[in-house]
Amino acid sequence: MVVDLGAQYAQLIARRVREAHVYSEIVPHDTSIDELRVRRPAGIILSGGPASVYEAGGPRVDPAVFELGVPVLGICYGHQLMAQALGGEVEATGQREYGATSLMLSDRGPGVLLADLPARDTVWMSHGDAVTREPDGFRVTAATDQIPIAAMEDPSRGLYAVQFHPEVSHTAHGQAVMKRFLYDGCDLLPDWTPTNIIDEQVGRIREQVGDAQVLCALSGGVDSAVAALLVHRAVGDQLTCVFVDHGLNREGEPDQVEETFARHFRIPLVHVKAADRFLARLAGVADPEVKRKTIGEEFIRVFEEVARERSDAGFLVQGTLYPDVIESGSKTAANIKSHHNVGGLPEDIAFDLVEPLRDLFKDEVRAVGAELGLPEEIVGRQPFPGPGLAVRIVGEVNAENLTKVRGADAVVREEITRAGLDRTTWQAFCVLLADVQSVGVMGDGRTYENPVIVRAVTSEDAMTADWARLPDDVLDRIASRIVREVPGVNRVAYDITSKPPGTIEWE
Ligand code: XMP
Q: What is the mean pLDDT of residues 373-392?
C-alpha cells in the first residue's frame, strides 16, 4: 500500500511495485490507521512529498503506522517522517541535494534493502531537510558526501528508509531496492502476473454478470479491446461488442477492429457506420471543447439506439484504468480537457458497469492483452483520443480535412514502425492546421496549401511528456513523404514542446 504524501511520485512507486509483480494500491495520507489495518496490507510505502517535516500543515502519517507489525519503507519525505516519529533527528541543513548523487554504502554492510548495490552507486536525490541522527535500534546503511544518513533500517521491526528515490529511472539500482523490500522485507512472492490477473478478473466478471447479456463499446484502442476480451473469456457469447465508426478514426482502423473481433475471436460485433451523422453534426464547428461535446453526445445517441434494440443487456463494459480511478478521486485536479470516453450515458438506460481494468496500469493492460492473444497491432497501439482525428484538425472538421490529417498520420505511423521506434515512442501523429496556408514550390508550380505539425512524444503515463528526439533521417522521410503523398499539404513542422507546458494533443 503506497501512502501518497503529496508528490507525483506515488503513482510511479505503485507502478514499480507492480513491475516487481506485486499488487499495489495508492491511498491518501489522511487514511486513518484503522482503515489501513482493516485493509491488511503486506507492506506499506510512504512516498516522497514536497513538504518539510517542520512545516505546519504538511502531510503527516499517524506514528502508529510504525507499530502495526507491517513492514514499512519510507522514501525521501517518508524517510524523514519515520526518523522524526521514532525519535531520530531531522535538520534543515540549508543545503539542497538535487539530482544524480553518489551513494556510499556503509563499511558495516548494506543490510537488507541495499544488498544488491555496489559499494558506490548513483541515486536520485531531491531534498532540503536531512536525517542527522537515526532512531534507536536503526542501523545506517549508506551516506552521501552531503548527508550522513542516506539509508537506514531496523529489520527486526520491519522498518526501512531511504533518502533517495528508488522509483525513478535515474537511480541505477532503484528497482533492486524495491524488490529487496518486497521480497525480503515483506516476504512477498512475485505472483502478480498477467495469467493471475486474467484468472482473477474472469472469476469476478462471472460472479458479477451471472447469465445476463453484456454490451461493450469498442473504440479501436487497446483498453476497450482488452476489456472486451476479458469479458468474453468470462461469459462468452453473452457479450456483444459495438463499434461506433464515427469516421474520425485512423486509416485502416475500422477494418482492423472488424477483422480482429468478428473474424479472429468470433465475438458478435455490431458495426455502426455513422460517419455521415457525425460529420453533419460537426459542420462548422472549430472550437475544441464544442467538438468534444458534440462527438460525445452523438456517440451516446448512436449507442443508445443500439442499446434499445438490445434491451436485454443489463451490463456495459468500460475500459476504465487505475490512473483514471486515482485521478477522479483527487479533489484538486483541474479540468484541462474534458476527455470523451464512453461515459456519461443517459440515466434512462440502466446499465450496471463492468470495469475489469480498474486495477490496472496501461502496461499491465498491454501484457494482459498479449496473454489473451490480441495481435501486436492492437496491443502495441498508441493511445488515441476518443474524439479521434477531430481534435487533430485545428479548424473545421470536414471530409477534406480528415483525408489530409489521416493521410499524414498514416505516413508518420508507418515510418515510426519502420524505424523500430514504436516501443520507445508514446505517441506519434499529425495535426493539421486547416486555417493556415503557406506558399511552397512543387515541380514548376507555386503551391498555397496547409501545413501539418508532426508531434511525437516519449512518456511513462501521459501526465508528463517529452518531445521525442527522432533521428534526422526519420524526420526527413516523414516530411518528404507527407508533402509528396498527401494532397493539399505542402509544409511539415516538428513540435518540440514538452508537457508541461504543452499538452500532448493540440486541442
Ligand atoms: P493531453 O493532450 O491532455 O493528452 O496531454 C493526454 C493523453 O490523453 C489522450 N487524450 C484523450 N483521450 N479522450 C481520450 O480518450 C480525449 O478526449 C482525449 N484527449 C487527449 C492523448 O492522446 C494523450 O495520450
A: 92
